């Protein structure tokens, strides 16, 4: 068997550069980060040989329209250049075997992938590296000239050309890259990425003027005259960096991953789904100003800025690599934020109240998963209740039985009536609220929490005396017959406010049950069977008619059956509208029918009055023109057909 000769992959560098520029990096600006990072790493490497070696990084702008980055780092021999610089994917900063096991990347270096220099081809057609090694003092200085088409030249320089070990990288811009190398832009970018770099970087323009890049030590590491001065400095930093003055600042310090920084508590509410961006520096270099993975989801009320040595970047170096370390860091930062909240509850109630005012939604989201926080903060959280917007503790003191609605509309409709009957109701319709209120007894034993159901409301409303109930018997029987069609019971009660003629109390379970029954009626045999087997005996809705309401008293006295039925349908329809629940087609038909029916009666009564019939209320008898004789009812049923 003959063996085919082996071949080597060819790499089209232009294609690779396009790939990086358009898909790996978010912007061409990263070229400067890569250059600064290589310079810092080179100095780190040299200092490992000689702790007193100079640490200078100088960026010269306006050099033939491009830039020059000089460092006093470890430098490269000709062999190093071939091995590391001219081989894509090879890096001197990984384990000795050069493998891609990222966990083996040496702790001290920022780079590790061996592709960073390629980012320079996004803005430059040609990169020149002149270097002299600090490892081998006899090795000549070397010049490498690489082009974006993948070709490079290398030559040894005459001795004496480069006085000191170190490296100088020169970029000459591409036609479409010059804006990124323009002096002011370079200064801004260098400060953006390099403010916390551990070695000083300076920018020298073509007039020789020098600007500083670093802004170290980090604002959280500086010495201040007093805690107040520190607080103010941190607040000033948040203002200039994030454009807000924080409610408070939480120090972050996780020595195991060399992480230090601060979490700023946002002064305004944010939507729980909108996660704030965090500024993450890796060994001083800014990795991202919008990293989201750093804190747990629930902590959406902070924006952090941190510098860490222990986390790893993705290859684009614009996000954090998701691994166990990152997950542990996230948990630890979460724990720190939780401790801060616990601390507030113990020692700074004013700030806690301000925090809860702004972020109660966040805290509610958090308390669902965290029993300790639940115990600590649930009593402080505000809820919409029949006593107004109050904390649960305050509410539970006034109401040993806390009733909670399942929806906002249920609360809107029932709350005033329940309140006047002495019931304490919490609006459970907002996100998390019902779940949290139900957990109150865990925190405050002795308090009872129950869902508000139709029976509870009607049981707390005043019953009417037997004589009045008897007098209304005919009306009630008719009302029950009418409402039975809508799976609704009818009860007569006295309640406040007097102005409400009737209310419909219902719950979601009952509504689902009715919906299921409707579907099962319309479905074919198989589905009807399945839906039928899902059925349960959910409570029926209840139309509670207010005996104190003057209109009800009048309606109860209407002798005419058709008008009385239309009036009952109208009452039901109005209560339905007040309940603000979604209307079904049958509900629309009912509203239409009763409205048109009432208009018919009103028009007929007006006609009777105008012709001088003199029958008083115009709906009392079956006499000529009276609507009850059939006209209105017929029209109403016509209307039913139209819908
Ligand atoms: N200023 C410099 N001084 C000394 N060596 C350098 C310098 N710049 C680059 N190198 C060498 O070239 C190699 C490749 O650099 P490159 O920026 O492409 O990748 P890297 O820094 O190793 O990893 P990353 O892709 O994560 O940046 C480096 O590993 C290093 O050995």
Distance between the termini: 85 Å
Q: Which sequence of strands runs across the widest sheet?
A: 5-4-3-6-2-1-7-8
Say which CATH homologous superfamily of the largest domain is assigned: Histidine kinase-like ATPase, C-terminal domain
Strand content: 15-25%
Q: Tell me how many strands there are.
A: 22
Region (Disordered): 615-643
GO molecular function: ATP binding; ATP hydrolysis activity; ATP-dependent protein folding chaperone; unfolded protein binding
Biased composition (Gly residues): 615-629
Keywords: ATP-binding, Chaperone, Nucleotide-binding
In a few lines, what is going on in this structure?
Belongs to the heat shock protein 90 family. This protein is an alpha+beta fold. The chain is built from 21 helices and 22 strands.
Word description of this protein:
Residues 615-643 are annotated as: Disordered. This protein has 643 residues and is an alpha+beta fold. The protein folds into 4 domains: 13-92 and 110-212, Heat Shock Protein 90, CATH 3.30.565.10; 227-352, Ribosomal Protein S5, domain 2; 381-459, 3-Layer(aba) Sandwich (Rossmann fold), CATH 3.40.50.11260; 461-518 and 539-603, Heat shock protein 90, C-terminal domain (Four Helix Bundle (Hemerythrin (Met), subunit A)), CATH 1.20.120. The protein has 21 helices and 22 strands. The strands form 5 sheets. The protein has an 8-stranded mixed sheet with strand order 5-4-3-6-2-1-7-8, with helices on one face. A hairpin with a 2-residue loop joins strand 11 and strand 12. It is elongated and about 120 Å long. Residues 34, 38-39, 42, 71, 73-76, 84-85, 91-93, 111-117, 167 line the site of adenosine-5'-triphosphate.
């Amino acid at each position: 068997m003959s063996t085919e000769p082996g071949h080597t992959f060819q790499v089209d560098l232009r294609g690779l550069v396009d790939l990086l520029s358009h898909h790996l990096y978010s912007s061409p600006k990263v070229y400067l980060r890569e250059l600064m990072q290589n310079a810092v790493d080179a100095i780190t490497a040299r200092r490992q040989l000689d702790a007193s070696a100079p640490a200078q990084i100088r960026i010269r702008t306006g050099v033939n329209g491009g830039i020059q980055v000089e460092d006093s780092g470890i430098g490269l021999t000709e062999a190093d250049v071939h091995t590391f610089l001219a081989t894509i994917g090879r890096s001197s900063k990984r384990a000795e075997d050069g493998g891609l096991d990222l966990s083996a990347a040496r702790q001290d270096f920022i780079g590790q992938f061996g592709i960073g220099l390629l980012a320079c081809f996004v803005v430059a057609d040609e990169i020149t590296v002149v270097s002299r090694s600090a490892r081998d003092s006899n090795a000549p200085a070397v010049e490498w000239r690489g082009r974006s088409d993948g070709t490079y030249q290398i030559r040894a320089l005459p001795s004496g050309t480069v006085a000191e070990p170190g490296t100088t990288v020169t970029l000459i811009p591409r036609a479409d890259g010059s804006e990124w190398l323009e002096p002011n832009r370079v200064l801004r970018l260098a400060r953006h990425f390099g403010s916390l770099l551990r070695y000083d970087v300076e920018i020298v323009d073509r007039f020789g003027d020098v600007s500083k890049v670093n802004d170290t030590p980090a604002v959280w590491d500086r010495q201040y005259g007093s805690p107040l001065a520190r607080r103010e400095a941190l607040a000033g930093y948040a203002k200039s960096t994030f454009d807000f003055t924080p409610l408070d600042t939480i120090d972050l310090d996780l020595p195991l991953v060399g992480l230090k920084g601060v979490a700023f508590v946002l002064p305004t509410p944010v939507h729980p789904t909108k996660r704030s961006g965090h500024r993450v520096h890796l060994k001083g270099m800014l990795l991202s100003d919008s990293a989201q993975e750093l804190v747990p989801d629930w902590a959406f009320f902070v924006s952090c800025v941190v510098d860490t040595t222990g986390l790893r970047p993705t290859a684009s170096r614009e996000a954090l690599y998701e691994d166990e370390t990152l997950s542990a860091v996230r948990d630890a930062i979460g724990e720190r934020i939780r401790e801060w909240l616990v601390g507030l509850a113990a020692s700074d109630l004013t700030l806690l109240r301000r925090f809860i005012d702004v972020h109660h939604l966040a805290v509610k989201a958090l308390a669902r998963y965290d029993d300790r926080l639940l115990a600590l903060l649930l009593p402080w959280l505000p809820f919409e209740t029949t006593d107004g917007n109050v904390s649960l503790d305050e509410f539970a003191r006034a109401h040993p039985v806390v009733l909670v609605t399942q929806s906002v509309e249920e609360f809107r409709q029932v709350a005033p009536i329940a309140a006047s009957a002495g019931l304490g109701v919490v609006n459970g319709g907002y996100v998390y609220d019902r779940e949290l209120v139900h957990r109150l007894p865990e925190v405050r034993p002795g308090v009872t929490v129950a869902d508000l159901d139709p029976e509870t409301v009607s049981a707390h409303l005043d019953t009417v005396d037997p004589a009045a109930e008897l007098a209304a018997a005919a009306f009630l029987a008719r009302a029950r017959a009418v409402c039975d069609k809508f799976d609704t019971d009818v009860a007569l009660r006295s309640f406040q406010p007097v102005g409400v003629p009737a209310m419909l109390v219902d719950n979601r379970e009952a509504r689902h049950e009715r919906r299921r029954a409707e579907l099962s009626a319309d479905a074919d045999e198989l589905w009807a069977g399945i839906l039928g087997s899902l059925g349960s005996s959910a409570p029926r809705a209840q139309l509670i008619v207010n005996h104190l309401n003057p209109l009800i008293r009048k309606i109860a006295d209407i002798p005419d059956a058709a008008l009385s039925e239309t009036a009952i349908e109208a009452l039901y329809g109005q209560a339905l509208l007040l309940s603000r629940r979604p209307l079904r087609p049958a509900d629309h038909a009912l509203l239409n029918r009763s409205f048109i029916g009432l208009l018919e009666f009103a028009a007929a009564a007006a006609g009777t009055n105008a012709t001088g019939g003199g029958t008083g209320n115009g709906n009392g008898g079956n006499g000529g023109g009276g609507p009850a004789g059939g006209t209105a009812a017929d029209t109403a049923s016509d209307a039913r057909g139209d819908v």
